[in-house]
Amino acid sequence: MSYNNLTPEEERIIVRKGTERPFSGEYDNFYKEGTYVCRRCNQPLFSSKSKFDAGCGWPAFDDSFPNAIKRLPDPDGVRMEIECAKCGAHLGHEFIGEGLTAKNTRECVNSLSIRFIPARGRDKEEDDK
User: Fold this and answer.
1) In this structure, is residue 128 part of a structural domain?
2) Which keywords does the record carry (predicted)?
3) Do 70 and 21 form a contact (C-beta atoms < 8 A)?
Protein backbone atom coordinates (compact mmCIF):
# COMPACT_ATOMS: atom_id res chain seq x y z
CA MET A 1 0.00 0.00 0.00
CA SER A 2 1.27 3.46 -0.90
CA TYR A 3 1.05 6.20 1.74
CA ASN A 4 1.31 9.98 1.64
CA ASN A 5 4.66 11.50 2.60
CA LEU A 6 4.66 12.69 6.20
CA THR A 7 6.62 15.42 7.91
CA PRO A 8 8.75 14.31 10.88
CA GLU A 9 6.11 15.69 13.30
CA GLU A 10 3.27 13.91 11.46
CA GLU A 11 5.29 10.69 11.59
CA ARG A 12 5.83 11.15 15.35
CA ILE A 13 2.05 11.37 15.86
CA ILE A 14 0.80 8.89 13.23
CA VAL A 15 3.45 6.17 13.24
CA ARG A 16 4.96 6.45 16.74
CA LYS A 17 1.56 7.16 18.39
CA GLY A 18 2.46 10.59 19.73
CA THR A 19 0.16 13.41 20.81
CA GLU A 20 0.24 17.02 19.73
CA ARG A 21 0.04 19.74 22.37
CA PRO A 22 -3.54 20.71 23.31
CA PHE A 23 -4.98 23.76 21.52
CA SER A 24 -2.12 23.71 18.99
CA GLY A 25 -3.68 21.82 16.08
CA GLU A 26 -5.14 23.46 12.98
CA TYR A 27 -8.52 21.70 13.35
CA ASP A 28 -9.17 22.30 17.06
CA ASN A 29 -11.22 25.46 16.48
CA PHE A 30 -12.24 24.75 12.87
CA TYR A 31 -15.86 24.33 11.77
CA LYS A 32 -16.29 24.19 8.00
CA GLU A 33 -18.46 21.78 6.05
CA GLY A 34 -16.67 18.77 4.63
CA THR A 35 -14.92 15.51 5.42
CA TYR A 36 -11.88 14.67 7.53
CA VAL A 37 -9.64 12.00 6.02
CA CYS A 38 -6.60 10.10 7.28
CA ARG A 39 -3.48 12.16 6.57
CA ARG A 40 -1.53 8.96 5.85
CA CYS A 41 -3.84 7.13 3.40
CA ASN A 42 -6.77 9.51 2.60
CA GLN A 43 -9.42 7.16 4.03
CA PRO A 44 -12.57 9.18 4.92
CA LEU A 45 -12.94 9.10 8.71
CA PHE A 46 -15.33 11.79 9.99
CA SER A 47 -18.00 14.14 8.66
CA SER A 48 -17.86 17.75 9.78
CA LYS A 49 -21.44 17.18 10.99
CA SER A 50 -20.07 14.97 13.80
CA LYS A 51 -17.49 17.54 14.98
CA PHE A 52 -18.18 19.43 18.21
CA ASP A 53 -16.39 21.71 20.65
CA ALA A 54 -15.39 19.52 23.59
CA GLY A 55 -13.09 22.20 25.02
CA CYS A 56 -10.34 19.57 25.31
CA GLY A 57 -7.80 21.16 22.95
CA TRP A 58 -8.09 18.63 20.14
CA PRO A 59 -10.68 18.12 17.39
CA ALA A 60 -13.58 16.07 18.79
CA PHE A 61 -16.12 13.98 16.91
CA ASP A 62 -19.06 11.97 18.24
CA ASP A 63 -19.31 9.66 15.23
CA SER A 64 -17.15 8.23 12.46
CA PHE A 65 -17.94 6.75 9.07
CA PRO A 66 -18.84 3.02 9.24
CA ASN A 67 -15.76 0.81 9.57
CA ALA A 68 -13.42 3.82 9.25
CA ILE A 69 -11.71 3.54 12.63
CA LYS A 70 -10.38 0.68 14.70
CA ARG A 71 -10.51 0.73 18.49
CA LEU A 72 -7.72 -0.88 20.53
CA PRO A 73 -7.02 -0.89 24.26
CA ASP A 74 -4.36 1.74 24.94
CA PRO A 75 -1.16 0.50 26.59
CA ASP A 76 -2.06 2.69 29.59
CA GLY A 77 -4.89 0.22 30.35
CA VAL A 78 -7.43 3.02 30.77
CA ARG A 79 -8.14 4.65 27.42
CA MET A 80 -9.21 3.27 24.05
CA GLU A 81 -6.86 4.15 21.19
CA ILE A 82 -8.36 4.87 17.76
CA GLU A 83 -6.58 4.13 14.50
CA CYS A 84 -7.44 4.41 10.82
CA ALA A 85 -8.94 1.03 9.95
CA LYS A 86 -7.32 1.10 6.51
CA CYS A 87 -3.66 1.90 7.33
CA GLY A 88 -3.35 1.75 11.13
CA ALA A 89 -2.44 5.42 11.52
CA HIS A 90 -2.74 6.61 15.13
CA LEU A 91 -5.59 9.13 15.35
CA GLY A 92 -6.05 9.67 19.08
CA HIS A 93 -8.36 8.25 21.75
CA GLU A 94 -12.03 7.50 22.29
CA PHE A 95 -13.90 8.47 25.45
CA ILE A 96 -17.36 7.13 26.29
CA GLY A 97 -19.83 8.32 28.90
CA GLU A 98 -18.84 11.96 29.29
CA GLY A 99 -22.31 13.25 28.38
CA LEU A 100 -20.96 15.88 25.97
CA THR A 101 -23.28 14.87 23.09
CA ALA A 102 -26.40 12.77 22.64
CA LYS A 103 -24.20 9.93 21.32
CA ASN A 104 -22.13 10.11 24.54
CA THR A 105 -18.91 9.54 22.58
CA ARG A 106 -15.83 11.71 22.03
CA GLU A 107 -13.30 10.73 19.41
CA CYS A 108 -10.38 12.96 20.45
CA VAL A 109 -8.16 13.30 17.37
CA ASN A 110 -4.78 14.87 16.64
CA SER A 111 -5.05 17.50 13.89
CA LEU A 112 -1.82 16.14 12.39
CA SER A 113 -3.49 12.74 11.91
CA ILE A 114 -6.24 14.10 9.67
CA ARG A 115 -6.73 16.37 6.68
CA PHE A 116 -9.86 18.36 5.85
CA ILE A 117 -11.57 18.11 2.45
CA PRO A 118 -14.15 20.91 1.89
CA ALA A 119 -17.66 19.92 0.81
CA ARG A 120 -18.17 19.93 -2.95
CA GLY A 121 -19.86 22.85 -4.61
CA ARG A 122 -18.32 25.42 -2.30
CA ASP A 123 -15.67 27.68 -3.69
CA LYS A 124 -12.50 28.52 -1.79
CA GLU A 125 -13.50 32.15 -1.23
CA GLU A 126 -16.69 31.05 0.48
CA ASP A 127 -14.73 28.60 2.67
CA ASP A 128 -12.33 31.34 3.76
CA LYS A 129 -15.13 33.44 5.26
Assistant:
1) no
2) Metal-binding, Oxidoreductase, Zinc
3) no
Are 115 and 124 within 8 A, CB to CB?
no
Chain-centroid distance, C-alpha 113: 6
Q: Is 84 a catalytic residue?
A: no
- With respect to residue 60, please indicate whether it lies within any of the assigned structural domains: yes
CATH code, domain carrying 21? 2.170.150.20
Q: Which helix (H) or strand (E) holds 72?
A: strand 69-73
List CB contacts of 79: < 8 A, sequence separation 6 or more: 93, 94, 95
Query: Rounded to 5 degrees, what angle do the CA atoms 103, 17, 77 make?
Result: 65
Contact 62, 100 (CB under 8 A): yes
